[in-house]
Amino acid sequence: MTDPRPARSVASLVAELLDRGLDDAELREATKQVAQTAASQELLTRSTFIFRLGPEWLGLPSSVVDEVVETRAIHTLPHRREGAMRGLVNVRGQLTICLALEQLFQPGAPVSPGRARQSVLSRRLVVVAMQGHRLAFEADEVHGSHRFDPDSLRSVPATVAKSVASFTTDLLPWRDHTVGLLDAELLFHALGRRLG
Amino acid sequence: MSTGNLSDYSMHELFRMEAEAQGQVLTDGLLALERTSTSAAELEACMRAAHSLKGAARIVGLVAAVDVAHAMEDCLVEAQQGRLTLRHDVIDVLLRGVDLLGRIAGTPAEDAAQWTQKVSPEAEEFRVALAAALAASADTEGSAAPRASSPADAAGTAVDEVAERVLRVTASNLNRMLGLAGESLVQSRWLEPFIRSLMRLKQLQRDTATALDRLNESWSAHLADPVTVEILAEARGKIDECQRVLADRVTQLDIFDRRYASVAHRLYDEALASRMRPFSDGTQEFRRMVRDLARELGKEAHLEIVGETAQVDRDVLEKLKAPLTHLLRNAVDHGIESPLERMAAGKPAEGHVRIDAHHIAGLLEISVSDDGQGIAIERVRRAIVARGLADEQTAQRFTDAELLEFLFLPGFTVKDTVSEISGRGVGLDAVQNMVKKLRGSVSLSSQAGQGSRFQLHLPLTTSVVKALVTEIGGEPYAFPLAHIVCTATVLRAEVELLEGRQHFQLSGRQIGLVAAQQVLEGTESKTVPDELSVIVVGDRNRGHEYGLAVDRFRGVFELVVQPLDPRLGKIKDISAGALLDDGSPLLIVDVDDLIQSVERLVSTGHLAGVRYDEGVVEVARKRVLVVDDSLTVRELQRKLIENGGYEVEVAVDGVDGWNAVRLGQFDLVVTDIDMPRMDGIELVGLIKKDTRLRDVPVMVVSYKDREEDRRRGLDAGADFYLTKSSFHEDALLQAVVDLIGEATA
Questions:
Q1: What is the mean pLDDT of residues B263-291?
Q2: What's the pLDDT tens digit per position in B188-222?
Q3: Quick one: pLDDT at residue B607?
Q4: What residue segments make up the domains of chain A, in order of their start?
Q5: Separation CA A184–CA A115 (nearest Å)
Q6: In what order do the strands lie in the sheet with A65-70?
Q7: Fold (CATH) for B279-459
Q8: Is the predicted ipTM greater than 0.90, yes or no?
Q9: Going by CATH, does the domain composed of A46-193 fall within 2.40.50.180?
Q10: Which of B180, B565, B568 lies nearest to residue A92, judging by beta carbons?
């Protein structure tokens, strides 16, 4: 280390500092930390996007959720006003199809006006994308991504309402609620069939 | 040096792209050489292109392409050195060589073995043909002294264009960019009202200052103590400062707003402009096509293209190719005469066809003209009478322009014989339709003996449309201006009832009135205002004029058209979507579609009403899901089972079927065995394992009729196994009935 340039010597000092061995106390502390995080993180291997539709809390795989934006004007489509179709909505300058997810779970259920009044502030437009196709739906409330331990999942009891249940793969306890995890592929399939 | 292994797909792909580009250079150059056979610049360009192709072909081991390019290069070098002249025949062969190169390059790498052999019959054939053409050309060499290559020629083409680099961008990428640019424009408009709202704050501060002043005055009259006076003065000072700071911030915000809005605007304009391409992008094949066609017909024709730099929307350009091709073929086939006829008429032997493109008054004007024989107007007149489109007397009264209009009618032709090239009578009406689809128009003029001229007027872009924005049922809908006859405000008192339908008078015409909301939504608005806002659409001459009553007019806007999500399919009465200035969505009305809807409503409205009143009682029918990857089998089964009164849904493979069966609440599943993604056995297994679905009966229908196949299906849990070979109407339907009973039990 006889390099006369000061910059170089500072660099080598830093390198030396980083290369130095740990003393026993530091090593113990570090080991403890590593052991701890491994124990608690190993389990949180899956992630779901949690939102609320009416009284129900539901979860979609985080990977299919493109973005969440505030609600905005939805233009209905003439001759297509039945069923789950709500119309077109502007997401980042692009007209995107907006659907009523609750119609899928409870066909024929009216989009209750009372519900809209009750939670205007928390309502969000959720944009999902699968295989390059985008769709939007309105959720009454959005929690966001939540990591969880797959071992904490419970199976869907046969007594749950058949319509929702057919899309639900598992139940996830979360805070005071039970979140129904949705089968994204089946959901998209069902929505796709309702577009044409 | 064949590598024998062409698995290196990307190299092959590169060669294909190079062959495309160099092929275009060669084609352009050769066509130019055909007219000025010694143009040094063209010869040089062609020689270089052939040379590059030779080298590139060698790298990828396409021996045949090397041979062809090599022979072409030799020939061009000879011509460069003045040792031979490129005549029509030679150019013919050389152009065929370009085609051959294109074909070789276009062969997928895995099939290209035929081109990698030492001797390729096609390449050999080309070499022989070229040699023969050169020999024939040499025989007559003496008759025409080759012109010395003039430097002017070279200069003339060299400065022609300094091509700008072009990037390939996918349409969806561009659309997303346009979307974001639009979004930023909408966002930029938010700031101005916000700044104006700060004025309220300014006013409040001013009021506070005034109040303090008044307080100060009243206090000073009562000889207040110095402490109070001081506090008051301090408060007054703070308020002054508040006003100063606020004013300063507002000014800065204002400046920022202007800067931001300007950037957003430019960004948006640029994004829109990136859809534009020079006209020449769409005309590359035309020169060659005209030449080849003329040679085929024993004529001589040259195509001149003017206005190649005119900017045109890439979609418009794409859709223009077909109609322009058609018009050019027409010009060469019907317009241009044979060289002998032309000479006799005192014209040069070579016919002249010209495409001229330019912007005029915000439109793209393209004319296609030729100096041929023009259209024999009397033959058109005779054809009109012969086809019973008008009687002799009427036909005599038609002006030339009116007569020419008939040529655009479907199936109308004046040719007695159908030629290979054109004259089938499916021509000009197709051209007109294509142009109309682009919201343009086409007109024809002709002078006997002088030639004819088609004129197309098109919007510069289909991505921006000028439209009247209206409100229907509380939602914005836009009507493209090009499709509106006029607008009117009609007083309720002016609406008359005629045969039970509403009408009003407009400049002496009776126009039927329809509520737009009723057409679009099937509902009528509850309140009828005293004044109706009416848009008149349709064709006055054909008596299809209708007045559409809308809630109100919002004004004329330039809208950036957004195609709707293709998954929606065609939505009746709607052509596309767009965004308003504030970012809210609107729909653009498909006026032609809407007129049809109105007509249907008018002609069947009464009937529909009666039928509606009867109230069809919805009978619950049993539901059957048919899963098969063959469309034919699927539809056959659907038809057969529907004949039994069942409701049938279909799925195209196992995965689709599995998704459908979980959603559809079916009474029976009918499935094939051999299917992609998930086969029938697996599907049956899944259904039978699911607690909610296991009671749904499943019938397997398969070609496999061996006993072990049957066993496999039934073991998986199928309730019935039907073989397709023993498959006829009764068997399938009977099996369905046996399993789940009659359709409406």
A1: 87
A2: 888 888 998 998 999 999 999 999 888 888 877 67
A3: 33
A4: 6-41, 46-193
A5: 25
A6: A65-70, A124-130, A133-139, A94-99, A85-91, A74-75
A7: Heat Shock Protein 90 (3.30.565)
A8: no
A9: yes
A10: B180
